[in-house]
């Protein structure tokens, strides 16, 4: 194992604290975004599939900027259906129209959000990050990191909240049965959205990233967290403003404000998102919660078994999908 023992994880608590003004910061950020109509635009994409209909989606996210997504629904359905809003791991985008068919195949409306400024590391993306540049380590972890107002994840988390609004606007979606889901960075997004919204039916976070920054920066030498370490190796006098910014984006604090039932997963040999950081958020989570632990896995976590477990979990929380 690469981190704390299971007994230690059971009692571990993060040292992260919510900064003064956390709730006002996010209320103001989301109020600014809400000044722009969500303006969901759909265009059906011919995929050759008989059982799933796929749509290219554009909606207005942070600052009214366009964010892309895929919507996949069971073919020939009129709804309303329970919905899964999914977020993508670090470096990835929404991918190809023929990828990620599980949720629609299981009968859910599936909205998969693209990731602004990413989508070239391992999975295709098309949404730019429209923000002024500043000195940063390659990647997005230090983009605008000296101020919460300019930090990259302010824009991404706002997009993620707005993706739920986009799903709610669709006739095919049952607004009372919407869940958020993701792994790694996508799991961090799911926790943030669960902490910022009170209208979710469930949340799923596989081996979530962006949790318990103080612990992560102390124990891991793996990227993407190491982007922040690399930055501070050069910007030696900026430790305090960097850590202050990160306080506004920590899954530990979002988790404490969440109420939707949640399923987490953690892997005890994960050096990318050490299990103690996952437990830091899990123990603070404010709603009903459970966690699946994979003792012999790294950042891949449970892989398809995580998805199998999530499918059963979401059926139990969202009800029948047809």
Describe the structure.
With 322 residues, the chain is an alpha/beta fold. It has one domain (6-318): 3-Layer(aba) Sandwich (Rossmann fold). It has helices at 6-11, 22-34, 102-105, 152-168, 185-196, 213-219, 225-234, 239-247, 251-256, 275-284, 304-318; strands at 41-45, 52-60, 66-74, 81-87, 109-113, 173-183, 202-206, 262-267, 289-294. β6, α5 and β7 form a beta-alpha-beta unit. α2 packs across α4 (152-168) and α4 (152-168) crosses α5 (185-196). The longest helix has 17 residues, at 152-168. The chain starts with 5 loop residues before the first helix and ends with a helix.
What are the salient characteristics of this protein?
Rossmann fold; Acetylxylan esterase; single chain; AXE1_dom; CE7; 322 residues; nine-stranded mixed sheet; AB_hydrolase_fold; alpha/beta
Map the helices and strands.
Elements: H1 6-11, H2 22-34, E1 41-45, E2 52-60, E3 66-74, E4 81-87, H3 102-105, E5 109-113, H4 152-168, E6 173-183, H5 185-196, E7 202-206, H6 213-219, H7 225-234, H8 239-247, H9 251-256, E8 262-267, H10 275-284, E9 289-294, H11 304-318
Parallel strand pairs: 4-5, 4-6, 6-7, 7-8, 8-9
Antiparallel strand pairs: 1-2, 2-3, 3-5
Shape: globular
Please name the CATH topology: Rossmann fold
Q: Characterize the largest beta sheet: strand count, sense, and whether it forms a barrel.
A: 9 strands, mixed
Alpha carbon gyration radius: 18 Å
How would you state the average pLDDT, rounded?
A: 97
- The total tally of domains equals 1
Q: How many strands in all?
A: 9
Secondary-structure arrangement, i.e. CATH architecture: 3-Layer(aba) Sandwich
CATH superfamily: Alpha/Beta hydrolase fold, catalytic domain
Strand percentage:
15-25%
